[in-house]
Amino acid sequence: MSADPQPRQELSDSEHLSALGYEDSFNRSMSFWANFALGFTYLSPLVGVYSLFATALSVGGPPSIWWIIIVGCGQLLVSLVFGEVVSQYPIHGGIYPWARRLWGRRYAWMAAWVYIWAMIVTITAVSEYGSGFLASLFGIDATPTVGLLLTLALLVVALLINFSGTKWLARVARIGLGAELIGVIGVGLYLLIFQRKQPFSVFFDTMNVQGSGSYAAAFFGAALAGLFLFYGFEACGDVAEEVENPARRIPVAMRLTILVGGVSALFSFGGYVLAAPNLEGIVSGKIADPIPQILTATLGTVGEKIFLVVAVTAFLSCVLSLQAAASRLLFSFARDGMIPGHRWLSKVSRSKVPANALIVACSIPAIIAILVWLDANLLNQVTAFAVLGIYVAFQMVVLAALRQRFKGWRPAGPFSMRRAGFAVNIVALAYGIFAMVLLALPGSTGSFWVDWAVLIGLGVVLIAGLLYLFIARPDRKSDAPAGDAIAVAERLRSRRAAVAEGTSSTGAAQPEPDAVG
């Protein structure tokens, strides 16, 4: 006696995509772990800790480590909101299609415009920081010209790997994941267990960084250390159409990226603080680049070289992931006809990657790197603008999701927070506003252009985007769906019910209706 066929509860990937108005154009060759590796190497705790370790200690002292926990908790809430959205909309591009389907075309244009520039600038910043490790690995003096050449080399190598296809992207992302875990957790644990020179109580010792004023100002000033660490998890959703069962897997990959990244960063940051032989010198700013000194003192020359190989691998993987995420966003933007050169940018190569969008994601960071070569002071401003731009784009999605909830939206993807979604969405938005205020606070150097560079940069991007939006009206050139969160949720529930009913009654799913446009 044969058992009755089990009803199929979920739509297939192609059925889900069809309900959203698209057809499969990519190979779904990215596994859950490869997707997690992509997000993790983009978030890259190794890159974040090594890039801003000295800055955080000189501004906020050892207690700046607590920003890793504060920001990690806040971004985990954001990832829960994103998880519901991507579970309903598992389509390429992340921020742009989410904002479009939750609000509208013009709103999505601005969110994507800010996000594109923030990602491109982030690619430049990570490549610049990575060039220093590459120079140390080969024993080359890191002159400005050498730094430029090595930065360009990182960009080009990442581009060539991305050109080869999703499988190679996934392979290198997994290698980068291993390098990250060795570089942050492995080395961090070794320093904590075998090389500790400071007491654990040092994390509650301000070491007088505040001078005669309040420590609150110094502590808030060190927030950049944590804020720079916890973005990149959204990249898991940028490649949704190349992942198997993305509506269920990507929300998990996002949360795992935050949790593993946060633990890794704590081990790494804490290990370097506790193993620092001259912590006072780092906090005072006398030691501008302390990590190589700590590594030499604790690992020896050979150990330092091995670690540098691991670090360079992690930086390359981070640049690779950033380029991949940026190119998918550009492709998604272009596929809907919302950007200049959209026909060229929306082309997919024989290896099933958006090759032309990848070229843009490499060439513009290369141009910015040349500007940094002309003026090295631009690097810190570039980094700060990248972080603020990312957070602005994130919170535009969080706000759009909350707006839809007030209108009656009940997320219809496999992942849903149900009744808790409202509260989580509100707290995530409040956290994001708090983070943006911290990032936008002007500096205190006395130079107008330096102190206000981040807000000036964001203002230029916003004004340029608004001018193009209202002059060229790209929103009128696209007929792709927008503002349909409630309608799509109802459609998905209806199709899911039809599939389950058809499977239970006939043993096979019934044909799906044509895609909506």
TrEMBL record:
InterPro entries: AA/rel_permease1. It is found in: Membrane. GO terms for cellular component: membrane. One of its GO terms (molecular function) is transmembrane transporter activity. It comes from the Bacteria. Its main location: membrane. Keywords: Membrane, Transmembrane, Transmembrane helix, Transport. It is a multi-pass membrane protein. The chain crosses the membrane at residues 32-53, 65-86, 107-126, 146-163, 175-193, 213-231, 252-275, 306-334, 355-376, 382-402, 422-443, 449-471. Residues 498-517 are annotated as: Disordered. This is Amino acid permease. It comes from Humibacter ginsenosidimutans. The lineage of its organism: Bacteria, Bacillati, Actinomycetota, Actinomycetes, Micrococcales.
